[in-house]
Design brief:
Layout (H helix, E strand, L loop, with lengths): L11 H5 L19 E8 L8 E4 L10 H5 L2 E3 L2 E5 L5 E4 L1 H14 L7 H14 L11 E10 L11 E11 L10 E5 L24 H9 L4 E5 L7 E4 L2 E7 L2 E5 L9 H12 L4 E4 L3 H4 L4 E6 L3 E10 L2 E4 L7 H15 L9 E3 L4
Parallel strand pairs: 8-9, 8-15, 12-13
Antiparallel strand pairs: 1-2, 1-7, 3-6, 4-5, 4-6, 5-17, 6-7, 9-10, 10-11, 11-12, 11-14, 14-15, 15-16
The structure holds pyridoxal-5'-phosphate and 2-OXO-4-methylpentanoic acid.
Pyridoxal-5'-phosphate (PLP) binds next to strand 11 and helix 6.
Length: 357
């Protein structure tokens, strides 16, 4: 078990920097325009150079931009947290930088060096410090984007690229905060197929999920669970979050086969649970197995750890516990958020302080 420690000091300077325009208690996962964004550009075969900060706002782009015409774009999602020790920190930001590099290879874009990525996200958060919510009220969501911004008519890589980062304060991803969510298994639609782009954060992976997700929401569900496109039997992901279930004390999660996004929260949960002495199995998780599990949850930067109250597939509905979060789910949630808030020791060295002066 991880040791709890009490914070011995708070950094009043950073606390004072919170703006008083925002109602921190009503944050949802939605866009609030902030002050400053970061932008840098490069040509296809040139090296990336550090960019600059500028006021948050619209930008102009060619109608023939690769990203607009052929979806040559990637995004990342990270959070900056205000902690019990008065610091503002990222959670494993190097992993986001590396995932964006793998995505850039897949979409034939010039990968942004990790040093430029980290410098960019640090600068944007430091420039928008007053938008980082108080501890426990949410986080500053950081959205790096990499796109083919130069004009191209044939289906080919764009001649030039833009890397930009903007931020916005956010609260819970799912309506209803951290209460258990009801999910629907999609029997008609898939998110990704073998050999496709499901394993990277390509912008084009997300629009096809909007219609199935909207339909599920109209029917009273929070989100859709996607099955694999080959056998239609194994769980892949929950919309934009990874899936876990617990059966007889063992934690199961779909293995990374190239069609699932390798979530940083997923990886952290695996490491935490194993550190706690729990067996964790990365394998094929059939819908049938999951629907007979003892607990289930989904996880991601936006979703954190969201307990699943029920899973519906056709006429069958599996309810977990009595619809309230299970004890293992709750414990993992407390540990991961405790590390992020610095109310629990960061024994894995996952936090990365944002330099603020
Ligand atoms: N799966 C998909 C499709 C996602 O978009 C996300 C969000 O980034 C995740 C899983 C969770 O990944 P992470 O924990 O790195 O945020
Ligand atoms: C994230 O968890 O950061 C995501 O990217 C989810 C999302 C809002 C698409």
């Amino acid at each position: 078990m991880l040791e709890r420690h009490l914070c011995s000091h708070t950094n009043v300077g950073l606390g004072e920097m919170m703006n008083n325009k925002t109602d921190w208690d009503s944050l949802t996962f939605s866009l609030t325009p902030t002050d400053t964004m970061y932008l840098t550009e490069t040509k296809q075969d040139d090296a990336w150079m550090p960019g600059d900060l500028r006021p948050y706002g619209n930008m102009s782009i060619s109608p023939a931009a690769g990203v607009l015409n052929y979806g040559q774009g990637l995004f990342e999602g990270m959070k900056a947290y205000r902690t019990a020790n008065g610091r503002v920190v990222f959670f494993r930001p190097e992993e986001n930088a590396r995932r964006m590099q793998r995505g850039a290879d897949r979409l034939r874009m010039p990968p942004v060096p990790e040093s430029i990525f980290i410098d960019a996200v640090e600068q944007v958060v430091a420039a928008n410090l007053s938008w980082v919510p108080p501890m426990g009220k949410g986080a500053l969501y950081v959205r790096p984007l990499l796109m083919g911004s130069g004009p191209v008519l044939g289906v080919a890589p764009a001649p030039s690229y833009t890397f930009l980062v903007y931020v916005t304060p956010v609260g819970p991803y799912f309506k209803g905060g951290v209460s258990a969510i009801d999910l629907l298994i999609s029997e008609e639609y898939h998110r990704a197929a073998p050999g496709g782009s499901g394993g990277v954060k390509a912008i084009g992976n997300y629009a096809p999920g909007m219609m199935p997700s909207k339909k599920a929401k109209s029917a009273g569900f929070s989100e859709v669970i996607y099955l694999d496109a080959e056998t239609h039997t194994c769980i892949e992901e929950v919309g934009a979050a990874n899936f876990f279930c617990l059966k007889d004390g063992v934690l199961y999660t779909p293995e990374l086969t190239g069609t699932i996004l390798p979530g940083i929260t997923r990886d952290s949960i695996i490491k935490l649970a194993r550190h706690n002495g729990m067996e964790v199995v990365e394998t094929k998780v059939t819908a049938e197995f999951a629907m007979n599990a003892d607990e289930a949850f989904c996880c991601g930067t936006a979703a954190v750890i969201s307990p699943i109250g029920s899973i519906t597939k056709g006429e069958s509905k599996a309810v977990f516990g009595n619809g309230t979060p299970g004890s293992v789910t709750t414990s993992l949630y407390n540990q991961i958020t405790g590390i992020q808030n610095e109310t629990i020791d960061d024994i894995f060295g996952w936090l990365h302080e944002v330099p603020t002066n």
